[in-house]
Amino acid sequence: MLAAVVRDYDAGVQLEKLPDPVPSGDAVVVDVLGAGICHTDLHLLQWRNRELPLIMGHEIAGTVPGYGPVLVHQSWGCGHCRSCRRGEEQLCSDVTEAGFERPGGYAEKVLVPHPRYLIPLGELDPRRAAPLTDAAATSYRAVRRAAPWLSSEQDRAVVIGAGALGQFAIQFLRLLTPAHVIAVDLSEDKRADALVLGAHEAVTAKELGGRRAEVVLDLVTEDDTLALAAALVEPGGMIMRIGSGNGSLPFGRGVVPPEVTFMSARGGSLADVTEVVELARAGRLRWETEEIPLTDVVGALDRLARGDVQGRLILTPGGPA
Ligand SMILES: [Zn+2]
Ligand SMILES: [Zn+2]
Q: What is the Å distance from ligand 2's center to 68 Cα?
């Protein structure tokens, strides 16, 4: 199979012909049709903290003989611990994940340890569906956990960062809560998209004009956005950090208003991903994708690093539709 492999961080991602994965036990092989390129993949290359060789790609969709078009849940737990027993394998301390510890979707085929990680896509196109497993499910779970703070139309939710995850977060806030949703982004294009996707307002941080919010979802999570979140949150409100930025926020008296709850997001559970697929199949979610041949992976990563993308870039190892 063709795969994009990192063997040396200085050399970066390189295309190679590798033997096809061979399933044993419960494992199944997915023929990859779409692999989303996530910002986290750029961080993996920057931070250089993963064991090599590495095949990135944790947003995977494809087909499996006998199963049809499927989305792959990326987090594979030990199966025995408390988190795994509760169906929260993404929280397992021994979790291994496609595109991190295990070979991921930047390849024509992926070995998945058990068919329970395959979510049927029905009529959804796997080339478009890949971001549902991470970008959408992570936002979905975050909004689900924030929803108790957002019970009326007077409650405000601020979304910092209207990129791929933020665009899903805005839609889930509108689907799951009655709250007034404000998107904050420096990019005029992203603010325009946020309004189309249902945000009541889309502004720059300055334009908030001192207004505060019950919930602040920070999808950038740099030092300055977390400080903005602390300045925006109401007493008794909540701040959710989502995404893979490296910022931090001091957790001290006087730094944040009283009784603020902090939560961190980390992917979605198998149930979250399944619910997201149901919403997508019901036509209730919108997301933009651009398909790129696997052979153009290096150029695609460069484009994402430059911010030169509209929707999710999707590698299509199986070729275009
Ligand atoms: Zn990701
Ligand atoms: Zn476990």
A: 28
Q: How far is the CA of 40 from the centre of ligand 1 (A)?
A: 5
**299-305 contact pairs (CB < 8 A, 24+):** 300/37, 301/13, 301/37, 301/41, 301/42, 301/45, 304/37, 304/39, 304/41, 304/42, 305/42
Asked if the domains at 2-133+268-316 and 137-264 fall in one CATH topology, the answer is no
State in Å: Cα 122 to ligand 2 middle. 29
Centroid of ligand 2 to alpha carbon of 89 (angstroms):
6
Give the 3-state secondary structure of residue 12.
coil
* Domain 2-133+268-316 architecture: Alpha-Beta Complex (3.90)
Q: How many A from CA of 44 to the centre of ligand 2?
A: 24
- Å from CA of 188 to ligand 1 middle: 24
User: Structural domain boundaries of the chain?
Assistant: 2-133+268-316, 137-264
Structure-block tokens of residue 218: 């920070």
Q: Give the tokens for residue 165.
A: 């995850």
Q: How far is ligand 2, taken at its centre, from the CA of residue 145, in Å?
A: 21
165 CA distance to ligand 1 middle (Å): 9
Tell the CATH topology of 137-264.
Rossmann fold (3.40.50)
Tell how far the Cα of 110 is from the centroid of ligand 2, in angstroms: 22
217 phi/psi in degrees, rounded to 5: -100, 115
Q: How far is the CA of 90 from the centre of ligand 2 (A)?
A: 8
DSSP letter for 221, please: -
pLDDT by residue for the chain (321 residues), tens digit each? 999 999 999 999 999 999 999 999 999 999 999 999 998 999 999 999 899 999 999 999 999 999 999 999 999 999 999 999 999 999 999 999 999 999 999 999 999 999 999 999 999 999 999 999 999 999 999 999 999 999 999 999 999 999 889 999 999 999 999 999 999 999 999 999 999 999 999 999 999 988 999 999 999 999 999 999 999 999 999 999 997 788 999 887 888 899 999 999 999 999 999 999 999 999 999 999 999 999 999 999 999 999 888 789 999 997 655
98 alpha carbon to ligand 1 midpoint, in Å? Answer: 11
